[in-house]
Amino acid sequence: MPGRPPISVVDPADDATLEAWHAVERASILPERPHAVLTSPRHRVEGLRHPTPYLSTTLLVARDGTDAVGIAEVGLPQDDNLHLAQVEVCVLPSHRRRGLGRALYDEAARLAADAGRSTVIGEAHTTEADQGATAFAEALGFTSVHVEDHLVLGLPMPDERRRRLEALAAAAPRAAGVEIVTWGDHCPDELLPGYVRMRSQMNADEPRGELDMARVPVDEARVRAGEALIARSYAGVVAAARRVGDGSLCGYSRMLLEHRSTVAVQDDTLVMPEARGHRLGLALKLATLGVVEREHPGRTSIHTWTAPDNHAMLRTNLALGFVAVEVLHEMQRAL
What we know:
Layout: E1 7-9, H1 15-29, H2 41-49, E2 55-64, E3 67-77, E4 84-91, H3 100-114, E5 119-126, H4 132-139, E6 143-154, H5 159-169, H6 172-176, E7 178-183, H7 192-205, H8 220-231, E8 234-243, E9 249-258, E10 263-271, H9 280-295, E11 301-306, H10 311-320, E12 323-334
């Protein structure tokens, strides 16, 4: 297209361009999606400069003169799912409908193809009033293959609701024969084997629709690498259910709290199959919530994503007071 802004790869050592890249991301997303939770800029930069063995990331920027006006991110798994590329594209509102988004995607797809990838996945977020993200992705040949509701819980939780939920969950640990333990950024060594087993179960159980992604068992090295990377930008809060008899773990819930932010992200919550049916998931979520409110009192909301057909977790989240604010579509296309 004549006059199209040139697209280049971002140098991970170029602080000014990285800041411009993140400024475009914020300006492209937050005015239209006020509930959006963006990746911590520090976390993204750490992943570029000190990547784990499991993911390689490339950032693209499109400039109009000296101004960054469009961006893309290309993530290439390095240890598993070697057919996949993860792509995200953002364009400033002032530069949309000129073909720039498609040009950024085409360049990202070229990088993916050069790396031998055959499938591209990405996320599109919609509300009842705005379906533009999925329309753009579909115009590029993508199909929605999995849907999750983006849910938000305001903090602090009202006292009456807290008392009611705590009463409801009070018997759960005793009924399941467990005690609830918590930790922060680093799982205690003695609990790591059980935590790894649960993280693998979470990967196996998590609803993914028709997403062309193999479910990968987690090992200790992957957990420790992830903890080290995440801890540079986020505080972690984990609650786990430990059996009173043998000390084994049978459930966990994890939150991530970006440094210098007011939001918390409810990440995984899992109860192992043999321990289900006692409201242990609710008890674990309340335990992490308690740590957040005691140790991170500046947080004003918790965000989580739940598939509509994950009925048990959706019931738990709605009971806690989460409300749906938008829909996440996992989009996919073959190269």
